[in-house]
C-alpha cells in the first residue's frame, strides 16, 4: 500500500522528498490556521513566530495536497518528517482519510496540532497573527517568508484561503 502524506503548509512547497504522485485533496474535520507558536523554525523562544497547523473543527475541511511516497523511500521520508514536524511534540502524527480530487480516498500521514500543548494558540485574531508573523525569525528564516511561500503555492494549486491572503497583504503592509 502506498504511503501518502497530506500537505497543507510548508509541505506544499518543501516536502523534503520527490513525490511519485501529487493530487489535490481534502481533509474533513480540520482547518488550516496559524494556531501554533514556532520556537524553532520560524521564531525563537524569546520571540516566537507562528506556523500553520491543522486544528480540529468538525464542520470544516482543509484543502491541500496528497503526496505519494516512493515505496523504497518510505522509511527515510517518515524519519525525516518526524524529525522536522515533531521537533517539539506540538504536532501529533495521525493517519487520516483524505479525499483526493480524482475520487480516490486514501490514508495519509498527517500532522495535526495538539490542542493541549503549550505551543497551541488557536483563536488568535488575524491582526495579532499578522504582527507576530511580520516580526518573527527562526532557524529556517523569516516567519513572513513561510506565510508568503505557503500563500503563493496555494494560489498556484488553485486553493483559496482568504485568511492567508489577508495575512499576506497585512504582513506586507506592516513590514513596508
TrEMBL record:
For this protein, the record's SUPFAM superfamilies field holds: Gamma-glutamyl cyclotransferase-like
Keyword Lyase recorded: yes
By what name is this protein known? glutathione-specific gamma-glutamylcyclotransferase
PANTHER family, per the entry: CATION TRANSPORT PROTEIN CHAC-RELATED, GLUTATHIONE-SPECIFIC GAMMA-GLUTAMYLCYCLOTRANSFERASE 2
Q: Which domain of life is it from?
A: Bacteria
User: Which organism is this protein's natural source?
Assistant: Thalassovita gelatinovora (Thalassobius gelatinovorus)
Record's GO cellular component, any one?
cytoplasm
- GO MF term list: glutathione specific gamma-glutamylcyclotransferase activity
What the entry lists under Gene3D superfamilies is as follows:
Gamma-glutamyl cyclotransferase-like
State the InterPro entries in the record.
ChaC (IPR006840), GGCT-like (IPR013024), GGCT-like_sf (IPR036568)
Q: Could you tell me the keywords of this UniProt record?
A: Lyase
- Enzyme class comes to lyase
Amino acid at each position: 500500500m502506498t504511503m501518502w502524506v497530506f500537505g497543507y503548509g510548508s509541505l506544499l512547497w518543501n516536502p523534503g522528498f520527490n513525490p511519485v504522485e501529487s493530487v489535490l485533496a481534502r481533509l474533513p474535520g480540520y482547518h488550516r490556521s496559524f494556531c501554533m507558536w514556532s520556537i524553532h523554525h520560524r521564531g525563537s523562544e524569546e520571540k516566537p513566530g507562528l506556523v500553520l497547523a491543522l486544528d480540529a473543527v468538525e464542520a470544516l475541511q482543509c484543502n491541500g495536497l496528497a503526496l505519494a511516497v516512493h515505496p523504497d523511500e518510505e522509511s527515510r521520508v517518515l524519519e525525516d518528517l518526524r524529525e522536522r514536524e515533531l521537533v517539539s511534540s506540538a504536532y501529533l502524527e495521525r493517519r487520516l482519510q483524505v479525499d483526493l480530487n480524482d475520487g480516490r480516498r486514501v490514508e495519509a500521514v498527517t500532522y495535526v496540532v495538539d490542542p493541549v500543548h503549550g505551543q497551541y494558540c488557536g483563536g488568535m485574531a488575524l491582526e495579532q497573527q499578522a504582527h507576530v508573523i511580520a516580526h518573527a525569525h527562526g532557524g529556517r528564516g523569516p516567519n513572513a517568508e513561510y506565510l508568503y511561500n505557503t500563500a503563493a503555492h496555494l494560489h498556484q494549486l488553485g486553493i483559496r484561503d482568504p485568511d492567508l491572503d489577508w495575512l499576506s497583504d497585512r504582513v506586507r503592509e506592516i513590514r513596508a
